[in-house]
Fold these 4 entries.
Entry 1:
Amino acid sequence: MALVEIRDVYKSFQRDEQRIDVFTDLTLDIDAGSFTALMGPSGSGKSTLLNLIAGLDRPTRGTVTVGGEVVSAMSAGQLAAWRARHIGFVFQSFNLLPVLTAYQNVELPLLLTRLSGKERAERVKIALDVVGLADRADHYPRQLSGGQEQRTAIARAIVADPTVMLLDEPTGQLDAKSSQEVLTLLQRLNKEFNKTIIIVTHDAHAAERAKTILHLEKGDLIEKPRMAAAGR
Amino acid sequence: MKYFRLVLANLGRHKLRSILTIASVALALFLFASLRSVVTTMAAAAQFGGARRLVTLNATGLVFPLPLAYGNRIKALPGVTGLSWANWFGGRYGDGKNFFANFAVDAQSYLDLYPEIVMPADQKQAFLQDRTGAIIGDRLIHDFGWKLGQNVTLQGTIFQGDWTFKIDGVYHPTDPAIGDNVLIFHHDYFDERIGRAGIAGWYIVEIDDPSHAPQIAKSIDDMFRNSSSPTKTGTEREFQASFATMWGNVSFLMNTIGLAVVFAILLITANAMMMSARERTGEIAVLKTVGFSDRLLFALVMVEAGTLALTGAAIGLGGAKLLYPAIKFNGAGFLPGFKVATSTLIIGALVALGLMLASGLVPALRAARLPVVQALRKVE
């Protein structure tokens, strides 16, 4: 059974008098332990799909199931708790809280758990270690480079050991070197820790690191999933 | 507790703004506590007075004297067990900036009627035997650096001239409403200096039973109703209350100013909270993505507003509570026993809670209801 099951999803937005159909009938499966890149032009529905999987948005019709739980049927309160347990989200612009140190930013998802302060500290240390920023724990975001900020954001996304990692253009604001570092890190998380990763990207080089590439255009999968070079 | 660090971090985002907001709340509640304490102190003064003491004044007003001859007639009434009299003097010391009450009394009878005025027996005796002597409240020692046995000279404002008194005794009042900054001297000396013997400013009448007060007061006033100086008699509490009533409008004004100040600060605090929440729209969306629930975010913003309001309240109310006793404030002598009452602190704390609710509610609701996708679209 697939980890992420998207069934007959119809999604539309109302903008003033105009209705915009993003997905008309999308069906898609994403397996556990996969590393999937979603590609497509702006407005093709990549980020909307990510938001639907994360439970940040709801389909107008159809169902979104993650790990056997029907995300599209949950209440707002249930969704918040579910996200805290199962989703690790990484943004293009990092979105670290500027008033918190790297350590405190990474700790945020763990505040929602029942872990003790000591247990939280251990997990944060491991997460920062995995992304290679153990020595930057006390730095504030303004004291980090873009690549370091994004790696901190990835540490925040993995610290609670989520079921799925969702990344929206994670290399969009990084230079080439930092992009490679982040993509290498994601590959490592997928291979060594068997993390299920779904990444939205415009960058073909970034997509090549994924095992599977999906192309979206105007809300439709325009070709069947194909295996990327790294996944072969 | 684990979330409080987040609250503190957010408050530290714009330190100056947070400090100014706290300072505004502190100032508002300090003013509120101060103004309300004027009102409560006056109200407390109106409660002063032994239930067994009546005060007889000239019916026309306090500034009009009564014949001293009234004394014996009052004393002869059934139920009257003691009598004394006093006269407002209104002298000033030095440049007059430090006002204090001073009046002439029939010393022996006055001290008999006021056991609240406590001083060493030898000082009391010295005063009773010294025609130009005076006793003073212990606060005047502190205010002017006077010493026992020293001569002090007051300038008469109503009764002109320099009036020199020897300090024979220093008393400490057991009831703060008596006033610890009063100078009391002999009525005999007063009569002698002004050359107008036989007058009293007011009489203090001790009665056998408080329940007889209305009847005795009526008897006194009836006795002088058709004389050249009709009287008005009431209990000492009524006498004090009449002063408080004169302050009635001031009391209303003070309450109104107090509320206006609090309301103005409410607007400032609410504005600061709104700005703070608006600036963090993106961060709130990120926290929701991480898994923070609407309810938790609502609580965090409310706690943030509460931290500002309650810290300000603690500084403002605590400051008022500690400051006034430390500087022995008594409103230039008009507010003896001035203190910030517990009820004022409780009301102030409730005002702070109200401030928290009023300033935090809208931003907290906004944070809770923020649609994540739209907010993230703005940030990304």
Entry 2:
Amino acid sequence: MRRRNMLRGGLLLGALLLATLDLGSGVASLAQAADASVNIDNFTFTPATITVAPGTKITWNNRDDIPHTVTDAADPRAFKSQPLDTGDAFSFVFGTPGTYHYFCSLHPHMQGTVVVK
Amino acid sequence: MDDVYDHSAAQDTTGKEGNGMQRRGLLKCMVWAGTGVLWTVSGGVPRSQLIGTAEAATPTGELSFVQISDSHIGFANAPNTDTPGTLRDAIGIVAQQKGHAALLLHTGDVSQLSRTVQFDTAEQIIKGAGLETHYVPGEHDVLDEDGKGFFERFTKGGSKGYYSFDQQGVHFIGLNNVQNLKAGGLGNLGQEQLEWLEKDLHGRASSQPIVVFAHIPLWIVDKDWGWGTDDGAQALSYLKRFGSVTVLNGHIHQIMQKVEGNVAFHTALSTAFPQPAPGTAPSPGPIKDLPPGKLRSVLGVTSVKQVRGNAQLAIVDTTLAA
């Protein structure tokens, strides 16, 4: 439950940021910061490092036959997905600039980085 | 078929090329035989012989038990869309061949996604073996509420998934190395469990045979694929003084074994799907492109016998095609 609330909080924060961007600089920048995606194939996050603008929603798509998670390596965690079965996706809006190292909590050799700037 | 196992492969199963080939050769050989192979390990040299001749040479009345692993109930993709069916086959073999087996071990990944219905299905099928069953969790079994559902149902003796018990003079230790994994790391026991283990072994006679069972291999099989346990060496250091230690794992869905001093390591086949040898595929995911009709020849069960007078236990792997 806690995780879900946190996720909802993250999305809400992202939505507010997007709304602010929309008011401040128009629709074009909203579209620019809207979406990015990371695929999971063969126990690998691709791209391994992704750089996005603040307010970007990143969606991870699990295309493996094995469940994976997307888990912030920091303590406390800013984000952690539910286990993603084949075809499941997880999205998180990165509102705060910074470097986020994450991994799969089931297969911790799987690692990736999100740079928000 | 005697002595098909190459000693150098037994000592180094982490090699990515030469030894991998030897291991594949071995597995193929077992498939051709269409039956189990008995492993007896004496003085660090594993020897194999066909199950029929081996059984004739094995004294009766000693402790024997069976291991199954990685049933992944809920997985329904290539190469196996019927994991309950293959688990049922495995349990059929166990029921048929159990003889005087005292118990059954399941070394984790009972389920694919920790769902109650998956646990229910597995438990019902496994009951068919008619053996008291001891479980340890795989990483697939602890996805909800930090594993509470699994521990309440399957590890009643240990609320955190680790526990020990004695059976006919042999000390069994079930470990949980699938939780609180660290980014970039391997399997993990953690300080609390290590302290428990040290205490559990304290004061035991070093002549007592020890069987350790856990999901992820306690030894480093392949770092790049995460096949090993970060603090496994620490756990094994507590076991050094014992004359007979057998470490049984799952997770990698293939047979690998090695011997170090008095410790014999062995990993079991899955009852659900095979995984590739380290370094032979882009990822450790399921081998999907099996030739038709070959699935059951790469799934199986493991039987273990304590042969009085031998330092190591005798381990027999039987495929579902046998």
Entry 3:
Amino acid sequence: MASEPRDRPSSAPEALRTVHRSFSEGGSEPAERRARERVGGSGGAKPPGVIFEEVSKFYGEVLGVNRVTLNIPPGITSLVGPNGSGKTTLMNLMTGLIHPDHGRILMRGISPRDPETLMRITGYATQYDTAPRWATGFTFITTGLLLFGYPRAEAEAKAWKALERLSLTEAANRKVAGYSKGMRQRVRLAQAIAHDPDVLVLDEPLNGLDPLVRAETIALFRTWASEGKHVILSSHVLQEVDLISDQVVLIANGMIIAEGTIRTVREEIQEHPSQYLVRCRDASGVASRLFSEDHITEIRLSEDRLGLLVMTRDREQFAQALGRIALNGHRIDAVVPADENVDALYEYLIGGE
Amino acid sequence: MAVYKRGYRRYAGPLTGRWTRFLVLPRYAWRRLYQQRLVLLLTMLAFLWPLLCAGFIYLTNHAELLQGLDREFREFIQVDGRFFSIFMYVQAGFAVFIAALAGPGLIAPDLANNALPLYFSRPLTRWNYALARLTVLVGMLSVVTWIPGLILFGLQVGLAGGSWFRANWTLGAGMVVGFFVWLLILSLVAMASSAYVKWRVVAGAVSLAFFFILSGVAAMIDNVLRVTWGHIIDPAWAVNQVWRALLGVTPTEGPSAGASAWALAALVLLLVLVIERKLRPVEIVT
């Protein structure tokens, strides 16, 4: 990553930068207070978020992340960005492995500068095969738990439970060095969840998993998210991110480009017309009617003449227009957003850089 | 959006001590190190000299066995500071080789595996980690240094009686302190070479070379400049000078024990800084 001054303008197009809306808009009270209020606040049901307030991290002259402001709610959140964009730096900041030069971070109300407390609620799986060559899956996880201070019996019980959740019990007493890539990935996840953390920070957790285990792992993520945990992961596989994420954080050049649910982020992007796939019997007729609408910018007919790719600047007007067309007797079988996915967001917001 | 329901209960039982938790790491490391034949062989060889010394102590405490010997010689072979300084010098040599064998495997594999982020995403600080690795070496080297030294001291006390102990207890204390200074330096050198050189054989060679090269450079300075202070940069010489002071033995020509102690302290500080620079959870490439 190139060296850049702290306040350098973003290389993202100016208009796109408006997509990133700070979580703190509408109030200036400190994040910590807000976080504590969420813990013991009136409802008490919703756990506090993972909060970044104006966080910057530089490695000497090299930019890590710059002025990152985020409020990540519980659920599955994907960090998406090109190589060197700052995803791993964000994860290292969350886990207290590095500290910000500016700004502050709160992980469910706990500062990463308090590792003793933070690590009890945080599980981290790096992207590397970190298990020592001599360790079996069971000893690898047990050793980690002993470092948490669990008595041996408790550590072994927890290690076994974690191995069970990742379907690794049969291989538990084999050396990790002899595991397949997918098994090593799973043992990394197992060590991250073994101490029942509330926040899981997972760097490329789906790499190397076969489709079946991948589906099982995604199901696990969903289970953890349904328990109110934070599951924060990075991935290069955008289709997967699309499939599993409750929200996404798009990052490029150390700057947050967009955050939120995929739909809300997409709605913020005004520069690119929204794309819809429309399946209908009379595609030509529907297309000719749609063309009379001002907000339609482009229509492409599919080769089978049973579908349209429609681009519109106004989603609501498009919906109304389709309604009118349907009322006029044209049968509309399906309408599917074609660019309401991470792939499209990535292309619109980062791909051009 | 997630539905916030909790299906598990967090462990709320007692935890092990915060300050002793790092001992989890040495326990596994010792087991693996003693599985290496060369380490085991060298450790066993290192017990030969203490056995000979034990025999010597036995002889010196049994006057009837020394009846036929010359009176001056009988006075020469005493269990005193000189005896313990010779014992320490030999055992210190074994310790150098054991540290060179065992040390390289301590940090290098963790760096090669990128395992440090994993360690540090536990309630384990960098200093805990370094202390754990230091404990591995100090523990191993203790087995061949101050522990047999104290056994010899105890043997002498047992044979010579309480009066000998009252007159010479400083020998035991000085030996333990002196050994610990040496073990600290050896362990830090081994850790530093392990942190910077990922290939174990080379890291071991670097550990050994460190002492031999500094010794050579010190001798060169003394000879070329016709001075005696050059030895101050030779850790083995400096620690020997400190031992002599601790055991009440006449110092060798050169810098005083105080100056040698300061030089060793500076070396320890330098080694700690070198290790601290490398033991980071995130590799920072600028």
Entry 4:
Amino acid sequence: MTAVIATEGLGKRYRTRWALAGCTLSIPAGHVVGLVGPNGAGKTTLLNLATGELAPTTGTIEVLGGRPAAGPAQLARVGYLAQDVPLYAGLPVADHLRLGAHLNPGWDADMARRRIERLDLDPRQKAGTLSGGQRAQLALTLATAKRPELLILDEPVASLDPLARREFLQDLMETVGERQVSVVLSSHLISDLERACDYVIVLVDSRVRVAGPVDELLATHHLLSGPRRDPASLPDQMQVVSASHTDRQSTLLVRTSGPVLDPAWAVSEVSLEDLVLAYMRQAASPAPRNDHRHLEVRK
Amino acid sequence: MIEFHLDGRSGVAPYLQLIHQVRHALRLGLLHEGDQLPKVKDVAAGLAINPNTVLKAYRELEYEGLVGARPGIGTFVTGTLDGGSLAAHGPLRRELQRWLAKARRAGLDDESIQALFASTFRSAIEEDIA
């Protein structure tokens, strides 16, 4: 199966600052992907590169096997909901649907109408007078009614209250269940995405810290606690994500594909939120990037 | 039809929670052979969870022989977990209630009762294994 998004050494520089650097990813189809990271980490830059609104400074990016925004056919395959929920404030709900039908050859008018009815939106109401939750729902309707293969949502729930947030995600999950659509959505809060995503990418300081299916990440990360110990003395295949020590005890979050055999450790599982936070906290420490150097030394 | 719920703080993976709830309902006789499980799409929409999570739970239950998928229609219960023991639940519950009353009279508080039950349960299992 083609990757929904495949990048190779992708980078984007604004003047002197790299908003995204050395990004190599291959996201398989059929997932709901959570792109997580603090504000300013490069999430929007990555999404804008995927929609073709930005051109890469270095490297390559393919979306659904094609160049982003390469032509009408490619544009029709990707639905995009930008962070600022792009609607025309002075235009009534019904006109938004008409516009969508006019601009998109694959428009599913039935589905759009049904959704608007179910959301209890008045077709005559102007978009500018809708609540934040309603605006997000209308924008999601527009993005899904074009029947895309990939739906890209930039911080779709950030500005919503908890109820609207839940309703938006319920709606999105129903859409995913109904049609074969892959989704990439970004957020600076993992708790928003924990239930919805089965694939996660952690982006910090313009770099990808970790990416993979949630199941796999949870199965390969463990929290170890035991007598104080130097992390450097751990077996080679264990990658230390975070470590904290008291004078007697060490607590480590490690990534390892094998079982933890050392009986000195008490091993417990980690939640997705803890895992993501641990990667985010690695602030400027280049721990994950050490891998390459390790390999080079051993060669 | 049963309705699923999720405990966000339990730390148990959502798909496992769904499996537990189906098994629990089967054990208590809330679900019978032939009953339909909620549709994947509806569970996803209701709980705001990934449809793949629901599918994974249903596949696992299918693997255990408890449910079967009929393509295009839904997932149905095909097995039971009560092992014909549902009839025995009543008398056992009454015996347990008598035992609980006895434990209270002996001065045990809730926590001690639970601890006693758990430790007896564990040692009984260990004896079984040994």
